Amino acid sequence: MIRTMLCTEEYCTRHQLDRAAIGAVQDNEHDLLWLDLEAPPAEELQLIGEEFAFHELAVEDASRPHQRPKIDRYDNFYSWSSTISIMTGRPSVSSSTNSMFSSVKTI
After folding, report:
1. What is the pLDDT of residues 28-39, one digit of tens each?
2. Three-state secondary-structure class, residue 26
3. Could you give the CA distance from residue 6 to residue 17 in angstroms, rounded to a whole number?
4. How far is CA 72 from the centre of its chain?
5. Selecting from 3.30.1300.10, 2.70.98.10, 1.10.3720.10, 3.30.460.20, what CATH number does the domain 2-102 have?
6. Can you list the pairs that 94-102 forms with residues at least 24 positions away whose Cβ atoms lie under 8 Å?
7. How confident is the model at residue 25 (pLDDT cuts 50, 70, 90)?
8. Residue 6's beta-bridge partner residues?
9. Strand segments (E) across 8-103
């Protein structure tokens, strides 16, 4: 399941869309679609990459844990990777890698 938020000129609403519905949602040029994937399986990430024409190397980077922080610019989108660290106790720190794709219509 993919958690999404669709923002149009009139409103923002949350949905739970399957992959088949995503293509129909992104047809309107004034709408903005937010996709939230938490630890997606490689197959799901690959399908999303195909749907939005993300470069295969950007999709590969997003699937790898412990990716170094960076921003890559592609023809039709940006790929972002960042690391978040949280103090879980003294002196323990937990960190995770977050990846994001953004384009004119999609975050």
Report:
1. 677 788 888 888
2. coil
3. 10
4. 14
5. 3.30.460.20
6. 97/64, 97/65, 97/66, 97/67, 99/61, 99/62, 99/67, 101/52, 101/54, 101/58, 101/62, 101/77, 102/77, 102/78
7. low
8. 13, 33
9. 12-17, 32-36, 70-73, 78-87, 93-102
